[in-house]
Write a structure and sequence with these properties.
It is built from three helices and five strands; from the N terminus they run ββββαβαα. With 101 residues, the protein is of the alpha+beta class. A three-stranded antiparallel β-sheet has the order 4-3-5. The chain has a two-stranded antiparallel ribbon with strand order 1-2.
Length: 101
């Protein structure tokens, strides 16, 4: 399958043949199968694989849908603040620290 008018940003292939990989975080960043397989993009885990060409409107809808899915990661980078601990939940909701636990 040929993705007409879509260039690989890495090797600059004019029209991507085969799978097209679109970065969900970078604006207008696409890679061909060969370049994607080299795994050297900072957002490697955030690509949409397109096996066949789609209208831009459908691609944009897919990107927006994926970006709207909440992350499973804790909101804080500090593991001690993770909400899985009931005491941490209490502290986050009330500001009260229970020093006896």
């Amino acid at each position: 399958m040929i993705h007409k008018d879509i260039m690989c940003n890495r090797c600059e292939m004019e029209e991507i043949a085969g799978n097209r990989y679109k970065c969900l975080l970078c604006d207008r960043y696409n890679m061909c199968q060969r370049c994607y397989s080299k795994e050297d993009h900072p957002h490697q885990e955030c690509f949409l694989r397109l096996a066949y060409p789609l209208p831009q409107e459908e691609i944009q809808h897919l990107v927006e849908t994926v970006q709207s899915v909440p992350s499973n990661k804790p909101s804080s980078s500090n593991p001690s603040q993770a909400t899985s601990n009931p005491n941490n939940v209490r502290q986050q909701k009330t500001g009260i620290v229970d020093e006896h636990t």
